[in-house]
Predict the structure.
Amino acid sequence: MAVVAVRFAPAATADTALDARAIAALAPRAPAGDLRVAGAGWSGWIGRTFLRERVEGQLLAAAEGVAVLFDGRLDPACNVGGAGGDAARVLAAFRAGEENLLALAGVFAFAIVDERRRCVWLGRDATGQRPLWWTRHGHVVAAASEAHAALRLAGRTLRENEAAVAAHFALRPPPGAAGWFADVEEVVPGSLLRIDAVGARARDFATPESPRAWLRLPDDDAYADAWHAALASAVDAALGDARAPGISLSGGLDSGALAACARDRVAAYSWSLPNWPQCDEGAHVRAICAHTGATPHVFDGDALLPLGDADAPVHPDAPSANAFRALKQQQLALARSNGCQEMLSGNYGDHVYPEADAWLAGLLRSRRGTVLGNELRGRIRQFGVRSLWRDQGWRAPLRRMLRPVQSPPPAWLGDRAREALAAAPPSTDAAGDSRINRRLRRAVLGRSAALDASLDTFWSDRHGIELRYPYRDPRVLAFVLALPPDVQWRHGQEKALTRRMLVGRLPEGVRQRPKSGSLLPFFRAALRGRSRPKAEALLFAPDARWPAYVRREALEGAWNTTSPVEADDLLLWQAVSHERWWRALAREWPMLGSKT
């Protein structure tokens, strides 16, 4: 893994010197050192995340006026470009013809500079786990692993993108390919972008193919065996070249299923919250480790409350933040101290399951009348006849027929934010030409999941750890996209197929447990208790920025209520994380920030 920056000028007279401040901001993600490279009309920088990537041709390859700056890793099964480091393979593929690039597979982002044709290519794989942003200003094109760095390299001013920040408060990803800054765009996952003096054009990499028919297997046991085979192959691939691999383990089914596949090949890293028994997953983590043979490393996280450290790091590109970042940071630090460089993560596991209301439509569309009858009888035995009246399997599709597909924005959103969202370009439909499981395809390949995964690299890179997501592996995606939705909601049980697959592979107390315990009490103890003064200082400062997006009475009501609901806490955290974001930027870029 690496972090990259390129400044390219199609006009040969343009200045191509890299902005020193941009490189300094990227440097903490390069604990293994960096490389500088330059050519006619361009210059670039690559930061090494791992010592192992000193392999010749892994991050940088150049020949005859063409240079490749590479971040990520190609799939070992990908036979494009021959042998050598991944950057060298991309260079060989490019020199054999641009079409060859479209067959690349793996987890990657790259920039190719062609001095002869005065153009630059930018590419990302379909899962979008490695970030890449770009902008153009005058004769200069700049690209970098972080949006703010791309803007600085192009000499642009940093300004909030009002529509994107409105989307943040509406609990949506930024519209189109935009970021939270104006004048910068994300290289869309799965696309290859060619930029020259004339303009930019995009082509698509090969993406997980949309299934044309449901996967038909004899019974639920056969589906469970196939699901285990797909997930185990993804875990095997993720562990193939790993050194002292770890797993981010909660007590839930998604990371637990990965641990069941990895068994004693990994060390588990997690936290316990002894003073918060309703939030504590430590006992489940230890039970999973005892059953699978994974080595447990569990630390006490009671003191790592949200907002416990007012000056904790803030991602410079995004107002969205994980309220439990302090726990995550300690987990990464513990793993790195034990020599871990690759860590399996169960994140995005929830994305591979169809929504609860999809089971009935799936059964009707797959024309499995016998299974439908058995499913109805099972639900009646489980929940009673009246449950069918309340079942979302038919009520939710009916509502979607009567209302727009896009859910309305939250009631707390202000008029200005609503107008900005209404005027913003629509996001690309990740469902494409899929005939089945369209909503599931949007969930697993849509922008929201890819953006979250790419933002996570900011934190893991700083610890020299690569997060690997088996639930975003093409083998897993191909399986779940063809899976009939009812199989994962058998008789109304959530993740029914995964529970069946884990028989004998996890302790029964874990396999049959309901959804993982909520950290909401831990969050409220901080935001409404110990850290309340810090939150209040942010939210009610004279120059607070959230009132431009949120109705003041809505936020004040959420802050002052004595009986908060989850929506109240969500609104407060969206506002707090936004205030921390732009105030952190204001320390260096006054145009975004505080007057103090």
